[in-house]
Amino acid sequence: MAKSTGPEGERPDQPRHPRRVSAKRRTRRPAGQGAVIQRGDGRWVGKIRQPDGSARWFYGKTQAEVEARLAEALRITGAGLPLPDGKLTVGGWLQEWLDGLPVTGERRKGLKASTIDYYTRYAQQVMRSPLGAKPLAKLEAVDLEKLYREMLDRGLSSTSAHHLHAVLHRALGKAVRLGRIARNVADLVDEDARPQVDHTEMRVLADADYDRFLEAVKGERLEALYVVAAREGVRQGELLGLKWANVDLDAGTLQVVGSLQGARRASLTIGEPKTRHSRRSLVLFPETVEALRAHRARQLEERLVAGSMWEEQDLVFANRFGGYVSTTTLCRDFDSILRRAALPDVRFHDLRHSAATDWLRGSMHPKVASERLGHASTAITMDLHSHMSETLQRDAVAEIVARQRARRQAGDA
Question: Residue 340 CB: number of other CB atoms within 10 A?
């Protein structure tokens, strides 16, 4: 016969079940619906028998509280699901969830290494907080709302809190599907308490600033990388995962087929690009081809200097020993270039938007710009670059006016 389990959270010196405290009142319930009694000390206790024969106890200050918990437990067992493990903590479940995430492999689909690093980064914030020690079965929406408020009070952005909420929602959803908990409390967070994404105005290097940046990177060891980013709109991960096999300098083309992923050096790998539309072919600008030719010659010299220490990976943009370029070092060097050139403080990713801005101002068709950026639709491109809308309208109106004048002049002649 299976042994009964004691109440959750009780110390060993506390009563293990209500028989050791004289019952003051018992409420009658239909067969199979458990039992509810009031102990001699005034607390209410509920008990049900689980499918495996063991008993589960529920405690509360009022009869209504225990009746509600008992009803929820009966609903779960009635659906053929196990009752939540009272000993499993929020942190314990998050670690179990992370350990079970499928990683992309040669023979099976899964999550990219960068995605798992993203989940891990946010999950560990909860695991290290006091909330990580709370029993998963007792997690409430108010706990999450308090966590988000504390994040914002510490100066973290609303976007970070939004990402954390999304990660918790996914992790708790898996717990529900496995029967570890009865409901996803992330769904119950009040709409007003849910953190929102901060929509900051896009900053780009345009016109004179754009030209000054391209001038400022001349002579840099990774000059070609900055040129490809600013002229061709290639993402940072795509640049660092680019291989010479995907570059044809004679044809002036570049194939984006992979992206460097992973937050730590040991986990770095080249995986699939951000989306299926990110796999794309680019016709390069002449100055890009010129910069890449010079870069290749410089890299061959570095390879000779490194000798046997060179790590051959066919990377276009590698460190001095052929390995992956550190994103931390790259961003630090990028910021240094901006400061020396007295340019606006933009992110590396903003070079991609700067490229698109330059294309659109140069009368590139939005459809072509969208394809070059690897967007799923032109609408995405124009929404991201809405700051260009008025400029494009003015250019379009000016072009129509010029055509009308030319037609009238031809008619008058």
Answer: 9
Please indicate, yes or no, whether the overall pTM of this predicted structure exceeds 0.70: no
Q: What single DSSP character describes residue 102?
A: P
Q: What is the spatial distance between Cα 310 and Cα 304, in angstroms, rounded to a whole number?
A: 8
Q: What are 141-168's pLDDT values in tens digits?
A: 999 999 999 988 888 888 888 999 999 9
**Residue 67, H or E segment:** helix 63-78
Label residue 21 by pLDDT band (50, 70, 90).
very low
Task: Quote the tokens at residue 197.
Answer: 């994404």
Strands 23-27 and 44-49: unpaired
Give the domain 18-78 fold.
GCC-box Binding Domain (3.30.730)
Domain spans of the chain? 18-78, 90-193, 208-390
150, burial (CB in 10 Å: exposed 0-12, middle 13-18, buried 19+)? middle
> Is 402 in a helix, a strand, or coil?
helix
The secondary structure of 329-375, three-state, reads HHHHHHHHHHHHCCCCCCCCCHHHHHHHHHHHHCCCCHHHHHHHHCC
Please check whether the two domains, 18-78 and 90-193, share a CATH topology: no
CA separation for the pair 12, 14 (Å, rounded): 5
Q: Is 55 helix (H, G, I), strand (E, B) or coil?
A: strand
Query: Which has the closest alpha carbon to 188: 163, 160, 174, 168?
Result: 168
SS3 60: strand
**Amino acid, single-letter form, for residue 243:** K
Whether the CB-CB separation of 292 and 228 falls below 8 Å is answered with yes
Element at 172 (helix H, strand E) = helix 158-177
CATH superfamily to which 208-390 belongs = Intergrase catalytic core (1.10.443.10)
- Tokens representing 138 are 């007792």
Q: Regarding the domain delimited by 90-193, which CATH topology (the fold level of the hierarchy) does it fall under?
A: DNA polymerase; domain 1 (1.10.150)
Half-sphere CA count of 211, side-chain side, radius 13 A = 2
Which residues on neighbouring strands pair with residue 58, listed in sequence order? 46
pLDDT computed for residue 9 by the predictor = 45
